Amino acid sequence: MTDIESGQQYLAPHSAEEPIEGLPQGFGDGLSGRVAFWIAFSFSLFQLWTAAYGTLPSQIVRAMHVGFLLLLGFALLGNLVAKTPFGKMVLWALGIIGFLTGVYNWIFYAALIERAGFLTEIDLTVGVILIALVFESARRLMGLPLTIIAAIFFLYCFVGNHLPSPFNHRGYDFAQIIEQFSYGTEGIYGTPIYVSASYIFIFVVFAAFLERAGMLALFNDFALGLVGTWRGGPAQVCVLSSALMGTISGSGVANVVASGQFTIPLMKRFGFRSAFAGGVEATSSMGGQIMPPVMGAVAFIMAETLNVPYAEIVKAALIPAFLYFGVCFWIVYLEAGKAGLSGMKKSELPNPWQAVRQHWPLVLPLAALVYLLFAGYTPIYAGTMGLALVVVLILGTSLSALIGPKVLRSVFWIILGLAAASFTKFGVNILALVIGALVLACVLFKGGRETLGICRDSLAEGAKNALPVGIACAIVGIVIGTLTLTGIASTFIGAIISIGKDNLFLSLVLTMLTCLVLGMGIPTIPNYIITSSLAGPALLQLGVPLLVSHMFVFYFGIMADLTPPVALAAFAAAPMAKASGLRIAVQATKLATAGFAVPFMAVYTPALMLQDAGPLAAAWGYPVEVAYIVFKACFGIALWGAASVGFLLARLTLAERLLAFAAGVSLIVALPLTDEAGFAVGAAVIAVHWWRNRHPPQEPVTP
Fold first, then answer.
1. How far apart are CA 503 and CA 236, in angstroms?
2. Please, how many CA atoms are within 13 Å of residue 13, restricted to the half-sphere of its CB?
3. pLDDT tens digits for 403-430?
4. What is the signed CA dihedral for 14, 15, 20, 26, rounded to 10 degrees?
């Protein structure tokens, strides 16, 4: 009998379930826990059906997506947080009412279109209820800061006409405001919710399935075997495993919790300071949002907002992701050298290639996903097909274990592979038939039934993991709706343009500070949506390519989760590191040097993100320009890393640290002769340091 059937609280044994602010893990006890579990399961089925077949109008899909979010969110709050039976009953009632707002949009879809601009009192009542429930769910699940920001924007619609110029607007009546936010595609059901319902949900479930299939174990074994012997081995393992984890999961904080339980104690046991160990985990895990092919949810929102293929976003992120994780490796290497730490013993580590040989089928769905994304298919199609292939792999593995002779198992996999691959020619129906046949076969065998349970649990976990993203997208629709209704964004844009006419760098700094300040209280997704809506058009008018300006905002939205005083990723690592979240945040900021430098470099040299060519390309060709900029960025950031750690071949003197930092800055800024000065000073610092420490160092201490 399963946990669900026995009435025990359901708790996934694996880390695929992401802790959500305001919610413990699990679905609750008894009957209500089972109901919440099956609501989550049904939510996933509904989203997968709409993604695969798309027969419903977009407006209905968005409304039902929000309805399911409210139902599941309030149900879980009732099961896991409510302290009294009455409180639990109230929260469940709110969830059911929230779900009915989606049903209302579905039933009266055509009628609502016909009476747009002339809504009835019932329509307005449903709209008010929807807005109130979205605010309440955001308050309970996402915290007060984001809710307060959205409330300020919402209130501005009602009172903005009484403010002095240039902050005033013409004024709007109650019905127009409610219609703006509760119906149509400019408010709660705007682009963020469309992306959440279409793309993000699929990829969250995709990651949950891969994790349950053992992908995290494969990443850890591969990283241990490949880089465990390097100087600072456990921390290098943490960086590589988090980078690999980032290829399938775009949630930084979830990655901290998933891999930190293994990597942080290992780093501490090896000799790293607690705060540094937590900083390595937080920094490398947050990098998962910029690591292709499955980047953070923001990347899908960006692609939809800019109306560019998702592959273009991935292309722009390739070099910055390489630099980001390269700096993490480099600073760990330096920190280990400073502390006298060597690598781990090879005899104690798994063989990385043996791990790949044993689990190589897990890589196939990820490879198919990458192919489909870069072949020009939409993210929703690529994600759905990738997820379907994971299901085929999991169910097929269970059935193949029942086949005795190796030859027959090989024949089984060949037939199954050909049938699954035929979706490229015959469409999604062929995959549905293959999965249906596998499910039917699994029902007949004991091992197969257990595997079906894994798939069932993954669907429910994926729906719960999607809650924070979905609720954030819903509440941020209030902000977007205010901007489109009142036009207040033009005031902010004008201010940035007026500053940037004299100093683009100052405009970039103001945008960066906006991201970091907003990030103190709100997640990356609403941070990006709000800041890019305000600053993106302004930076475009100042000559910054639109994709680069949005990536600039995206990067600093991520950095906000690492930057003191409110560093969500650092505080997520604190319990495992047993260190202060602020101390971890300081170390994480040092490790994330590339995250702060690369966005500024990309604005002045867009070729760093494989965008517009510069003057060097005109003379020597685009590949030469890209290679030069990457080399310059690597050299500059390497100097910054040495300056921040205070170690290269040996401990750096104060003068060497200051000169190394100055040389790094010279290579980052784009002014006449700064590159020449940076290379000269950097080379001089390295030469002097080498000469001073040219005698062989002592053997490192092996713990």
1. 40
2. 7
3. 777 788 778 878 887 887 777 777 777 8
4. 10
